[in-house]
Structures are given as C-alpha cells and as structure tokens.
Amino acid sequence: MSAPWYHLVDAAAIPSPALVVHADRVGENLRRTIALAGGVERLRPHVKTHKTREIVRQQLTAGIDKFKCATLAEAALTAECGARDVLLAYQTVGPSVELLARLARRFPQTRFSVIADDAGAIAALGARFAREPQSLDVFLDLDVGMHRTGVAPGEGALAMYNELIRTPGLRAAGLHIYDGHLKQRDVAERSLAVAAGFAPVEWLIDRLSAAKLPVGAIVAGGSNTFAIHARDPRRQVSPGTFVFWDASYLEKYPDLDMLPAAVLVTRVVSRPTPTRACVDLGFKSVASDNPNPRALFLDLPDAKMVIHSEEHLVFESPSATRLAVGDVLYALPYHVCPTVALYPELLVARDGMIVDRWAVAARDRFPRLD
To answer: How far apart are CA 180 and CA 202, in angstroms?
Structure first.
C-alpha cells in the first residue's frame, strides 16, 4: 500500500515546524486554473499567497504576463522576474507613493498600476507621477458588497472615474472588483451572488460607454469566484490561493477541484493526557486570523483544537493514544496565505523527498530600492 501523497521519506531529518510545498501539485493547480480562466490571456494571478520568485517564473513560463500583488515588495519581486504588467491592488498613500515612483523607474520594462477609491489619493498620485516620464495606470476600486475598500458603483464612481481621466500623470486603466465575501458552498448560489454584485458594475460600464469614456480592463474576483467571472470574456480574473489551496477552500469550494499542495510538518512535543497532544505549531507557525480550527491534521481528521498559543497547539483526539513525543504529523493550514508569510523559506518536495528550497522573498512589505 503506497504512502499518502503528503508523507515524506526524509521527514526525520526536517526540523519542525516547516512548510512543505509539493511541486507537482502546484503545477497541476496552475494547469487547472488556466483552463478554468479560459486561457492565460484572461488570468492575472495574485502573488500574495506564495511570494516566491520560483512560482512567478513558472507562471511566466506558462505564458502568463499579468500579475496582481498586495505589497510593494511583491510588486518588486514580480517585476524583477520579468513580468510586463503588475497591478498593486492596494490604494497607495503616504510615503508609498514615492516608493512606487522609484519602483517604476527601477523596472521600466514593467507597466505598474494601482487601485484607488479616493479623490485625495488620486490627486496625490497624479501630482507625483506628473513628474515622471511615464504615466501611472490606475484602476477604480469598486465595492460590490464586501465593504472593505472601494466606492459603490453608482454616480459617485462615475464622477470619480471622470476625475481620474482628467488627472495629469495618471491613466484610467479600468475597474477592479473583489468579492471575497461570497463564500457560498453551492456553486449555483455563489454564481447568483456574483451576478447580483456585478449588476451595478454593468450599469457603470454602460454609463461609461454611453459617454464614450474608456472602460479599460475589468479585473474581477479571487480564488472563490474567479471561475464564475471567467464566464464573461470581458473580465480578467485574479485568483491567488489556487497555487497551494488550503483546508478552508478545500471544504468550501469542492467545485473548483484544486489540490492541496502546501503541508505543515509538525511534531508532538508533549502528551498531557492519553487523548491530548501538544505540537510545535503555534501562532508563529500557522495563521491564527480565523477561529479554530487553524489546521487540519491529515492523519487525525477527528482532532479538535483546544489551546493555541505562540509556540504550542494542543488538540484532543481519541486517536492520540497512539502518539508519542517526537512523532511527525502533517497538517493543512486553514489559511495558507498568512501561513506562508510566517516562513523564510518553503521546502519543496517531489516524490516524497525534499529537493529544493524556495525563499519567501516578498515576506517584507517594502522592497530594498537603494
């Protein structure tokens, strides 16, 4: 009987906790995502999940030439790899405006863009980039129900887009829509929710077209909704979690059929009771932004977390009676993106063996531009 896909032949030599990426599964997830997106031309993958040069280069080799980032460090890493089009999907304010201008000068072969939802932020960007030889592309960020960032796609958005068009130093690049709040497990229900959220965007597009204003590109969705947005050939889609998947997405979105590819290697460090085990998987080793559980133990699916602190994770399981201090366990993080940021490097596995190490090169928020 063959070992489970996540088991490592050389686990005894791996210091824990560690985050192991199974390279073949990453490649398969990329192939499946390109198919769901309708081709590489429609795909603008988000770098925030992996933050590595190696995966950006793998996506470039596949023919992808547009990317999305959350930080200036991610944007710099992506440009350094040779990407021609990098969207920083974060409103750039304060000293970051100057850093963005320096980044654009450092990588002239890359067309950078940002999102904006505020007239003052647009004015500040325009004032700075009016002094640059190349204008800055700006997407209007639209709020379709998440209420995190963006302007509602109504008359105010129409006025702001007009202001963006009139601002020297900037070019209105299009519309940005993120609907990460849509988490319906049933794909039909999720599809209806996506359509309802996008209906006001259609109104805005019609108004812009009627006024003979450039609509530009439409960048929509994340890993939860990208396959639905991809049904409309006008839209670019920007999933990120697809590269590694995680326990949360595995449970919520079975229709997307991605493979979990990033696995935590952890060890039992204490046995307080016969049915209780403590492992070295604290806040500093697995993302703790969501309520319990924070990890799914692949060989102990009935494990229930009871304590989580900086360096310890304690769970109860009837199966814990067979565990000994020092035993290796494998777990899927429930939220892989912030989990990746906790590690300076990812261990890369093929055929059950560690064969490489990938630096999480964009862990920091800001690039070094000296």
So the answer is: 19
Could you write out the DSSP letters of every residue in 83-109?
A: -SEEEEEEE--TTHHHHHHHHHHH-TT
Handedness of CA 280, 324, 20, 11 (dihedral sign): positive
CATH domain 84-238 topology: TIM Barrel (3.20.20)
Nearest-angstrom CA–CA distance, 336 and 165: 38
Q: pLDDT band at residue 76, thresholds of 50, 70 and 90?
A: very high
| pTM of the predicted model as reported, rounded to 2 decimal places | 0.95
Indicate the fold that domain 11-19+258-359 takes in CATH.
Answer: Lyase, Ornithine Decarboxylase; Chain A, domain 1 (2.40.37)
Where b means 16+ CB within 10 Å and e means fewer, 326-348 reads: eebbbbbbbbbbebbbbbeebbb
Q: Which of helix, strand or coil describes residue 49?
A: coil
Closest C-alpha among 178, 124, 121 to residue 147: 178
Burial class (CB in 10 A: 0-12, 13-18, 19+), 15: exposed
Question: Per residue in 206-239, pLDDT tens?
Answer: 999 999 999 999 999 999 999 999 999 999 999 9
- Domain regions of the chain by residue span: 11-19+258-359, 84-238
